[in-house]
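Schema walkthrough. Field components (list of strings):
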Amino acid sequence: MQIKSYTYTPQQRPVFKRYDLATVKKLAQETGKLANKAGDKGTSGIAYTLGALASLKPVQNLVNYLKNKNYQEHLAAFVGCTLSGFYMLDTARSKTIEKDQKVPLMINQGAVCAMSTVGAYTLNHYLNRKINHVAELFHISKIEDEKLQTKFLKFKQDPEYANVIERAANRNPKFKKTIDAIKNKFEFTSNVKVYLKEEIKKHKDDKVAQEFLKEIKNISVEKGKDKADIVKEIYLKKMTKSRAMQAAFNREGMNNAIKLVAKADTTKKLTRMMNGFKTAQALMVFALIYRFVSPVIATPIANNISEKLENRKKQKVK
Amino acid sequence: MLNLQSNTVNIASKQFTGVPKGATDDSISQFMLYHDSLNKKSLNQTDNFISRKTAKNVSFGGLSLSEVNRVKQTRLWKFLNNKTLEKFISMADASQTIFDAVFALGITCVLRPAAIMAQSNEKNREKNKKAASHSISSGLIGYGFAVALFSPIKKGLNKLKANPEIYAKKAAQFMGSTKNAQTFTMLVNKSTEALTASVRSGITIALIPFIDKYLLNRIFGTTKQPESQKSEQNLLQNPIYRYSIINFKNNAKASKTFQYFTGGLE
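Field assembly_structure (string):
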């Protein structure tokens, strides 16, 4: 008699899962794609409507009018003040906020608005000046080619280094082409104005630059011409006599050269870093000051004022 | 003596270059022969090489290379070359609007209320609570509007700027100039902000009592009004009569002098 050998083979139990990770991932990807598509369509729709808006005559006239004016600060201040004004109005009208809390809150909102607008007009210039230097150093520090980096650093330390570069460029025709391209790119932007003011502080006896700054304030612009072009012409004419203007010109040239280096970089790391620094700088400095520091300082001031007002009211009632 | 010598060698090795006339620092390695690199140390020990000025030490722009090195040793330069800073900034670049919104949320919903409430004492707690809840609600509304309205408009503007000939056929030339495009974007951004200001403020102010009630009161508690005021008001509105005086019922408890008095024993 043979004994049937029996080997135990455990049956593979079917595993029941509520969900499969792969399918969930697929679903998420597909929904993401759909959302992206919808978003893409939406944004291009917005682009079309904005394009239609831009082709309207009155809008173009408005842009042409504002283009030559230093309007950005005023516009930002105006928007901030309207928002704060609406805040105060809505608090006054509100039915749910307790009556004795309305006045201090309104004073608080007003104080924050006032501090922010004053800060925007005074502090921004100072901070921009400081941050420009840090930003330039940061851009230079992210240039991977060490020889180029040291050359830019030398330039940053001493703008007179431009003369050395120019002499070198005269010897080398290839090099000269790029230098000329950078020179032609020059425009008298708000940044250059900041540089120029800084340089004037260094060269205090430079009267040509000071006259230039006064002159551009009251320039009559003919129709069909940009103010920027006229200012540029005057700048290039006067630059030969003024050291401060030359230094500002060279500094702008350096920044344009860094942008060129960033463009030539195939990995695009430098451009990414430059863009990232821009957003981070706006956040870290301006958001921190106007969203955090000024409201925190404003609250005790507003509390004090409202307390005094309450005391006065009480005395009058008595 | 031997130790001293080795020290001098170390200093000198930095200044070494066996470079012919007219060579820039870019082309040093070309002129260096193999046996030069082998005999580097032995060459350096001779005095001639130490006293000689090398190409690296000669300044071209009135600035020596050591000045550049000095910049590289500053704290700022080290901070800028920090790896974590690089990560932070690449994050800021990768998702600008979201990064912006999250940062703003962090400030308005956590940092600012915390700082405001930290200043409060019993007198001004209610006022500070209102300021804090205003900050939270404005942050939330700002985030909502940034995600739902401002960032799509920004993207649309970027598309329009990138290829104006597709999106604005009539105004392609107008949008082609960078100055015009810049002014237009600024105008659109600020006007949308100004136009939505009333709606934003309306929702923000309406949210304040809710945030007060459901969030801040639970964390910091409600400060009661001073009792003296409350009792005066209450007494005027619904006066309490002490019936016990009329009733005699509770008199025994009230007067301590007759506590143990149970009547005379005669």
